[in-house]
């Protein structure tokens, strides 16, 4: 409600007061139109006194014509397919979308992640080499504009078969530059490789874990 109030050009507590205190008693038409745009619904659904019941047998509404439309103040982040196209002989360096997408508040992206929405992709972790930090099925948000392991961190790389997460550190004073790929799981070994041979897709900046 705070984000929606700000999107309407009101103070942060505007909708909180409307819902819980009845102030104002009725939303003005302009407010309803802006709120409806923010919520992605028709303004008439927000009219005062309107009752709305969804039949248990009702069909789901069709998806919007623009799959990447988002409420005001939010950005859509596509989810990437972690597997190579069966018909392809090698990865072409481009991320393919699964058709799934995630919504993030623009303020979170800009101020907490310090990123540009257009540089973000969601990747599903597959494997146990990064356990317990990352488990299979976790979702990693990566910034594809950040591909240099300085400072060290968790990056998603292309390993020749799939997109995988690894901790990457630059080897100091190495010439030509070399990096160390470190799994978190102690059952896997670290590997040192020339930096030019490691295809870094992006730096991990956020993770969604299954509990």
Describe it for me?
The chain has 211 residues and is an alpha+beta fold. Helices cover 15% and strands 28% of the residues. The chain contains four helices and nine strands. A nine-stranded mixed beta sheet has the order 2-1-3-4-9-5-6-7-8. The longest helix has 11 residues, at 29-39. The two termini are 27 Å apart. The relative contact order is 0.11.
Features:
nine-stranded mixed sheet; single chain; 15% helix; alpha+beta; 211 residues
Distance between the ends: 27 Å
The outline comes out as: elongated
Radius of gyration: 22 Å
**Quaternary structure state of the chains depicted:** single chain
Strand order of the largest sheet: 2-1-3-4-9-5-6-7-8
Q: Give the amount of beta strand, in percent.
A: 25-35%
Helix fraction, binned, reads: 10-25%
Q: Unreliable runs, pLDDT <50, ≥5 residues? A: 50-67
Report the total helices. Answer: 4
Mean pLDDT: 79
Beta strand count: 9
What structural class should be given to the helix and strand makeup? alpha+beta
H/E element order: HHHEEHEEEEEEE
Major sheet description: 9 strands, mixed
